[in-house]
Amino acid sequence: MAFPKVVKLVEVGPRDGLQNEAHIIPTATKIAFIEQLSETGLTVIEATSFVSPKWIPQLADHQTVFEGIHKKPHIHYPVLVPNMQGLESALAVGVKDIAVFTSPSELFSQHNTHCSVAESVVRITNMMKIAKQRHLHVRGYLSCVLGCPYEGEMIPEKVTDLAATLLALGCEEISLGDTIGIGTPLKTQRMLNAVMEKVPVEKLAVHFHDTYGQALVNIYAALELGVRVIDSSVAGLGGCPYAKGASGNVATEDVLYLLQGLGIETGVDLQKLVQAGRFIAEQIGCQPQSKVNQAMYDS
Ligand code: HMG
Ligand code: MG
To answer: What is the pLDDT of residue 298?
Structure first.
């Protein structure tokens, strides 16, 4: 299959990025960060997550952040929700887009959300009923699709079955997460080919962490199979606190540079993205984990 002509970038920095920071970022900084991202041409910015502050204190200010953003009508600001309690607090502040999450790995599910995979599907089923009544857009995440810190290799068929379940439950998009960044292009294509037997490629997104420096080549491999939604995190922020070794997400600047080089449209302005990446890296006190950001800033 030919490369897609247009790709949608899903910016996960304010959620997947900031959930893993050692220090808690001030609420006003998070809002300023999301607003800078809103000026770049991105159409999806995952704003925060309505999970338990006991487990993710970094995002305990989820309601204030969501309410504080000056939302642009053409931009979606999804939030992660783990259960009915999270969904109710999200609805209370007017959330319109949610992301539910589970994993084909039994042990990862236990560590991440303290429930079995089957129980997580029940939670999602219950949330989907409310989501349908309230006409919410719902994305589903699957974590550890190419390997798990607790179970090792992941069988593609397990990923396929759970992705098909999320689709049947009404998820509009399913993001396949290489949470610990151990995938390689061949494994990526093997997994995607299996999933695409039951879920149309238009419904799929890929979500790579860059632990082993394979994220960009994995994205290239996914593009070759026609995937047209890519998750990424500006300045390469990110990780999952329940997956040892899950370093940053692939940097949005690096993905955009790759897509531009392939002549693929995204509508996103690289220069503005570099500035947003610089802004958040300075606030955190680190260098952007993006070769493109560093190169463009130094030049
Ligand atoms: P639990 O402790 O088993 O739940 O947590 P519980 O129902 O027994 O409740 C315990 C306490 O948490 C109670 O408070 C609840 O009120 C509270 P207490 O009575 O002790 O004061 N609570 C909540 N508070 C606020 N919002 C809520 C909520 N739910 C319960 N929604 C739970 C279960 C799932 C909530 C917990 O394990 C949790 O929040 N986990 C978060 C895990 C997480 O955020 N992980 C990172 C995101 S996933 C990821 O990064 C992967 C991804 O990027 C893709 C990839 O890379 O592969 C998406
Ligand atoms: Mg992630």
So the answer is: 76
Q: Examine residue 3 and state whether it is found in any structural domain, yes or no.
A: no
Whole-number Å distance, alpha carbon 176 to ligand 2 midpoint, is 9
CATH number, domain of 226, equals 3.20.20.70
Q: How far is CA 201 from CA 70, 111, 147, in A?
A: 33, 29, 21
| Residue 240 pLDDT grade (very low, low, confident, very high; cuts 50, 70, 90) | low
Residues ≥6 apart with Cβ < 8 Å to 147: 153, 154, 178, 180, 182, 183
Per-residue pLDDT band for 241 (boundaries 50, 70, 90) equals low
pLDDT at 247: 76
Q: What is the pLDDT of residue 101?
A: 98
Domain membership flag for residue 67: yes
Which of 144, 171, 240, 286 is the catalytic position? 240
Residue 87: inside a domain: yes
Residue numbers of the domain that contains 289: 8-298
C-alpha of residue 49 to centroid of ligand 1, in Å = 10
Domain tally, the chain:
1
- 50-88 tens-digit pLDDT: 999 999 999 999 999 999 999 999 999 999 999 999 999
Identify whether 115 is a catalytic site residue.
no
The answer to the question of residue 1 being in a domain is no
Give the integer Cα–Cα distance in Å for 188 and 227: 11
- The CB of 232 under 6 Å from ligand 1? The reply is no
